[in-house]
Structure formats: structure tokens, C-alpha cells
Amino acid sequence: MPLAFWLPSLTLLSFENYPDAFLGVSFPIVSSLTTMMAVGGMAIGAFLLPYMAQSLESGSGLCSCFPPTPLAFPIFYAFSSAFETLAYITQLTMMTASLPLYAAGLFMNGLAGCGIQLFNLQITLIVAPSNKRASALSLLRLMAAIGDLPSAQIIAAISDYFRGDSTDAVDRLNGVRKAFLYTWFMPVVSTIMCFIVLRFYKRDVEKAREIDQSDEEETAPLISEKAQGQNFE
Q1: 56, 72 in Cβ contact below 8 A?
Q2: How far apart are CA 35 and CA 107, in angstroms?
Q3: How far apart are CA 3 and CA 27, in angstroms?
Q4: Cβ(4)–Cβ(156) under 8 Å?
Q5: 225 — phi, psi (to 5°)?
Q6: InterPro entries from the entry (predicted)?
Q7: What is the C-alpha separation between 63 and 59, in angstroms, rounded?
Q8: Which CATH architecture best describes the domain 3-205?
Q9: Distance between start and end Cα atoms, the chain
Q10: For residue range 80-100, what is the model confidence (pLDDT) as tens digits?
């Protein structure tokens, strides 16, 4: 759901109508703080989460206390999605209640969202055969775009339903918040799908390796160049 698209407007409306929640801080500072928290979460997640996934896969480093597992990437993918769902709810509930908790929700969302993007791409490349990876990435981007295109319009329609004919700023803010809160099941469904990926990951990896091995055998020359040179001698 396009929460990031609405966040600047929601933050401004929250600041104007619930000033006590922002502890007397000016809006430019609030805007800078929220941006820094979101970007900081993404920057940390871009390095920390792949490192932890590789550590779990090999049973070393930060995850040396766990046995090595080939499911490391889908495990972190699923937990990143669950963590993002928690951040999603935290942002919506805390933006009118507490600036520190709202900023923490933005940091959590940046951290988890970065993990989702990285592991989504990595898993796609791993489970797709070598000669199908370009098509797999194209299909991945297409499906994401198809899901994103109508989402802003859907949220706007739902928020208009809750707001009714009111022109009050608080009603506008609460209408959008309710639209996102009442569609909380979408991030939950996404998390469930990530756990389904976890269930079939090993089978898909083995299938991709079998296809790659079969393609290598089909394209391999019947007689190696070394053998041909020996025959001519």
C-alpha cells in the first residue's frame, strides 16, 4: 500500500491538528527528523540485513550460535515483511500521539522495507534458472507495478467514504488513517506470502539447478577440444 506517498501530507496534518504530540518542535525539524529516521533505517538495513542473512546461511559471524541453513534469505525476507507490518501500524497509530514513537516507526519501516527489496531481488535471482533471470526480473517489476498503480486511488476512495462531506482537516486526516488501518490485512497477506516462499524455497532452488545443469549438458560439445587435439596428433 502507498503509505509513503501519503506520509508527508499526513505528517503535516498531524502536526497542525495534534501539536502536543510533537513536543513543541517546529515542523521543519519534524520533517528533517522523520526523513533522517527513514533514510537511516534504509542505510543500516542495506548493510546489516544481508550480512546477517549470509551469517545465518554459513552459521558464522553474528549468527554463529545458529546452525547453518540454506533458508537464510527467505527467513530474513519473511521476518522483514512481518517487521514492516508492525512498522506500518506503528506509524499510523503514533503519528498523532508521540513523535518519538512515530519516528521509531519510520526507522523500522526503512529498515524492514530495505530488507524486503534486497531479499526479494536476491531470492528471484536464486530460484530462477540462469537463462530465465531477465524474464523473472521483468515479471517481478511488472507485478509490483500492477499492484501499485490502483492503490493510491483505492486509498483515496476509502478515505473519502470515511470523511463524507466534511471539509475539516481532522476529518481528512482521520479518513486517510482509517483507510490505511482498515486495509492492514494487505501487509499481513504479504507476510503470509513470504512464509509460503519459505516453504517452497529449497524445492525451487533445486529445480533451478537441475535446469541449469541440463542446459549445460545440452550445450556442451560431444568431444572436447583437448580430445580433438589428441586425435589429430
Answers
A1: yes
A2: 9
A3: 20
A4: no
A5: -65, -35
A6: MFS_trans_sf (IPR036259)
A7: 6
A8: Up-down Bundle (1.20)
A9: 69
A10: 989 988 888 888 889 889 999
How many whole angstroms separate alpha carbon 170 and alpha carbon 222?
75
Region 63-80 average pLDDT: 89
CA angle at residue 151 from 123 to 27, to 5 degrees?
100
Distance CA 164, CA 20 (A): 27
Q: Where are the alpha helices (DSSP H) in the chain?
A: 3-17, 27-58, 72-94, 99-127, 133-148, 151-163, 169-181, 185-219, 225-232
In 3D space, the residue among 5, 6, 11, 3 whose CA is nearest the CA of residue 32 turns out to be: 11
59: left (phi over 0), alpha (psi -120 to 50) or beta: left
Q: DSSP labels for 178-200?
A: HHHHTTTHHHHHHHHHHHHHHHH
* Residue pair 201/74 in contact by the 8 Å Cβ criterion: yes
DSSP letter at 132?
Answer: G
Cell 483505492 identifies what position?
Answer: 154
- Tell me the pLDDT tens digit for each residue of 194-230: 888 888 898 988 888 888 788 776 666 655 555 555 5
DSSP letter, residue 69: -
C-alpha grid cell, residue 115: 530488507
